[in-house]
Amino acid sequence: MPNYKTHDGITIYSACALGPVCYWAINQYAPTVGEYAFTSAPLTTTLLVVGAYLFSGLLLSNDLDTYSRPYRRWGPLRILWYPYQRLVAHRSVLSHGVLIGPLLRVFYLYVMVEVLLFAVYHGAVLTGYSTQMAQTGFHMVANVFPYLVAHPQVSVPLLVGLVLGGITHSIVDWF
Ligand SMILES: [Zn+2]
User: What's the Cα-to-Cα distance from 4 to each of 7, 67, 70, rounded to whole Å?
Assistant: First the structure.
């Protein structure tokens, strides 16, 4: 089973290759979503894909389903991933599946951030502190999904990068 150094190394080296390939593919195949042509901002699109790919491989890793280096990278926030680690079997289709893996983790993270904000809000109410920070957090989180739906030029490259990062991890696991 490849260790985290193998996964990290392959993620970083493949990201270096992904950048030029992505930039070339955008110009070559001129993908569009609705009215939006990705050729209008190939560099931004490439940076979003590569950034999401690195995030997917190094932090939102398939191996969050076990006590792994990516899990520890979250620092104190690793507590958010503890239920995931306990509930999802290591290397199951839920964590290592091509589409379901990254999408489930993004959805899970979204829910856990809401739970964390909920806890901070009620903690603040109980102790008499200001709830302003939690309310700002709720407001920001509530705007994420509508923003992504309204901006496919951002959400599509992010999705591509996240999914590719998960696929790379699963391919490495097969060897
Ligand atoms: Zn794995």
Answer: 5, 11, 8
Write out the two tokens for 53: 């790919």
- Number of structural domains, the chain? 1
Cα-to-centroid distance, 52 and ligand 1 (Å): 18
Percent of the chain exceeding pLDDT 90 equals 91
Q: Give me ligand 1 centre to Cα 49, in Å.
A: 21
Distance 96 CA to ligand 1 centre (A): 7
- Model confidence pTM above 0.85: yes
Once rounded to an integer, what is the mean pLDDT over residues 46-71? 96
CA distance 115 to 79: 12
Domain with 26 in it: 4-174
Neighbours of 138 (CB within 10 A): 17
Separation between Cα atoms, residue 46 and residue 36, nearest integer Å: 15
